[in-house]
């Protein structure tokens, strides 16, 4: 039984580092541009599934999309 706990502990240690590393990873400029276009409704429909898949894999990028939408809301209200 001890061996099972050691295996689980090693797995969790590796998982924490992986998740932490992904959170720190900033999107490439091309993705930032696509997020801006998507927020404005300007990203071609054919490119949207790929962007959504990338957002699914990099969930912390969703906050950048939210920031783009908020920025639009702020500029349209002025």
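-> sequence recovered:
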């Amino acid at each position: 039984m001890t061996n099972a706990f050691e295996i689980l502990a090693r797995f969790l240690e590796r998982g924490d580092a992986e998740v932490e590393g992904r959170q720190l990873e900033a999107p490439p400029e091309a993705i930032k541009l696509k997020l801006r276009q998507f927020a404005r409704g300007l990203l071609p429909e054919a490119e949207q599934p790929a962007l959504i898949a990338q957002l699914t894999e990099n969930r912390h990028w969703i906050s950048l999309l939210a920031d783009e939408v908020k920025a639009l809301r702020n500029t349209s209200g002025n």
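Residues 2-24 form the longest helix (23 residues).
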